[in-house]
Amino acid sequence: MATKKDIPGPKGLPILGVYPQFRRNPLSFLQETASQYGPMSRFNLAGFEFILISDAEDIARVYRQDNDTFGKSKAAKRLTPLLGNGLLLSEGEYWQRQRRLAAPHFHRRELSGIIPIIASMTRDYLNSQAVDGETDELMIPVRHTLADLTLHILSRFFLTGDEHEAPTNIHATVRAVVDQFGERSLKGIVSPLWVPTKKNRWIRKQITTLDQFTNQMIKSVQRKSNPDANLMTKFVHSQDESGQGMTLTQIRDEIMTFMLAGHETTSNAISWTLYLLNRHPDVYQKLCQELTEQLADRPIAFSDLPSLRYLSMVIEESLRLYPPAWANRRTVLKTVEIGGYQLEKGTMVMVSQWATHRSSKYWQDPDRFWPERMQAGLKKERPQFSYFPFGGGKRTCIGSNFAMLEAMTILATIFQSFDLIPNPGLKTSPMAGVTVYPKDEINLKLKRRK
């Protein structure tokens, strides 16, 4: 059987390999490498050898293998000081236990009650913005607005409940820390946070601020006889089969994971959707028609979701073109055969949503924004892992239901209250950090509906 040394790929420079190209534009590099070298390619990133797996069937094997075959990469562990041993980073029996404790709270029916609250928070947020009194027009910086709104929503559901709001400095700290760890994720070599550089000291200070606030909220819930109904409360009172609950550290790690990983992914997903709707007025008009027919003037409800099929397809197609998670890395824990090649223990593999979602092997005219390709009949014609914005297998993102419900509710609420005034000249480029985000702010103009 062929070994990984037989896998083709770009050569690059001595020692650095293809790191300069990857660092300059990782999205283009992965897409071009997958296109040029096929389903399996091999390259060196600053001394670290990676195998890029681009075939949907091979990707399925990576995601569906037992947890003792593929483990988290060293790069993922860079998030440990921030996220601790939460679901994103934990493995083995510990991960399985935490997943069992958390999963019931993320079932679609369990989340049904959040829709009217998200809709109300979205309306209140938009109404708090400065609307021109004469024209009824509102200019919004989309990425900033959605990041702020989704963080308010997440803090309410995960931390503070119905009665309170997280302090403004906590929101600012979350956004700043996510940006810093996004920068660290792309660097070949980073100094451990215990090294006393100026930036490391700043990062540690921000993490301490988040820890203090989260621990304060956990202890507050533990003291109350009738605490608010939020995710933290559910975690505090969760018990496994043996009757054991989560420790303070375990609750902290899970809450930090949901807050920091959740707000950035959802806000950027909605931002890209608005960007695409601005550039495709025909899709926007069709979406507005569906909202008018199905909702008229009443707020969106959980029971409306099955009938809002086009809204769902618009979001799914946006997630195809601009998946928040653009690549996942894994380490081979025991020798395995993938794509006709034998990969030994210690081999680092990468699967890329960005590259596979834009592959002409699976998608006709892959760079085109065409929501109709997400119809159920067309989905059945494609391999399952030709589309995996939320990962797959046992480690499918636990927050995927929450993210879709939130995105559908926010977009429906916006377009029930405002019309989008097209700006055909608006353009930006995707950038890779923790998520795929717009290089430039997306400034869109909305006009209040009469």
From TrEMBL:
It comes from the Bacteria. GO terms for molecular function: heme binding; iron ion binding; monooxygenase activity; oxidoreductase activity, acting on paired donors, with incorporation or reduction of molecular oxygen. Signal peptide: none annotated. It holds the Pfam family p450. Keywords: Heme, Iron, Metal-binding, Monooxygenase, Oxidoreductase. It comes from Pseudobacteriovorax antillogorgiicola. This is Cytochrome P450. Belongs to the cytochrome P450 family. Heme binds at residue 397. The keyword Transmembrane helix does not apply. The keyword Transferase does not apply. Its cofactor is heme.
